[in-house]
Specification:
Blueprint: E1 2-5, E2 17-18, E3 20-24, E4 27-31, H1 39-47, E5 49-54, E6 57-62, H2 66-69, H3 76-85
């Protein structure tokens, strides 16, 4: 899958970047291969929107970090499932 968060202007898409992805409980999760300092990750967390492309489909998406959701104990199993899927 490729990910393209918006650039600073909030209108122009960034360069499509290959990313790791997994679906857990019907939700799509992605991870930065080069860590959270990668440019696409920084743009996604700042702009909170962009698009993804896979299998000939392109979709507009909203981005949020798992850490934002982990404030509740009920989300902890999700983090474990995401980690297992990436091993």
């Amino acid at each position: 899958m490729h990910i393209s968060p918006f650039r600073e202007d909030g209108v122009t898409y960034g360069t499509p970047t290959w990313i790791w992805s997994v679906v857990v409980d019907g939700n799509l999760y992605v991870r930065a291969y080069n860590g959270t300092n990668s440019s696409w990750y920084q743009a996604a967390t700042k702009q909170k929107a962009g698009r993804i492309a896979a299998g000939g489909l392109t979709k507009e998406v909203a981005f949020e970090t798992v850490e934002d959701k982990l404030m509740t104990a009920s989300m902890m199993p999700i983090e474990r499932n995401i980690s297992r899927a990436h091993i």
